[in-house]
Amino acid sequence: MLPVMPASILPLDRLPHSGYAVNMRIRGYMTHEQLLTHLAAACATAGGQSAWAKANGIGAPYVSEVLRGTRLPGPAFQKALGVERVEFYREIRK
To answer: Sign of the CA dihedral 5, 11, 13, 19?
Structure first.
């Protein structure tokens, strides 16, 4: 897994309260783990990682690296998945 999670993808345990994650998913947001599940399902539907990669003009090794957590999906990869990265800010407690 990546040593530092980007600010745009918040892990569930860092969200303000547990109900927030459910609301985020309903509104179309997902965590990094949910994105990986979405990618794995898309690959399975396409007939495997190589088939999904070929159908979307992305290298098969890149798909594998994203699924293993050693790379983040870039703009073309996000477009193929139908997602975009967004950033969140949270209030710092004083």
So the answer is: positive
